[in-house]
Amino acid sequence: MIRSEKINYDYIREFEDNGVKKEERFSALKDVDINIKTGEFVAILGRNGSGKSTFAKHINALLTPTSGTLWVKGMDTKDEELIWDIRQRAGMVFQNPDNQIVATIVEEDVAFGPENMGIASDEIRLRVDSALSTVSMEDFKRDTPSKLSGGQKQRIAIAGVLAMKPDCIVLDEPTAMLDPSGRKEVIETIKRLNKEEGITIILITHYMDETVDTDRIIVMDRGKVAITGTPKEIFSQVDMIKGFGLDVPQVTEVCNNLRKMGIDLPADILTVDEMVKEICRLKSTI
Question: N or C: which end of the chain has fewer CB within 10 A?
Answer without folding.
Answer: C
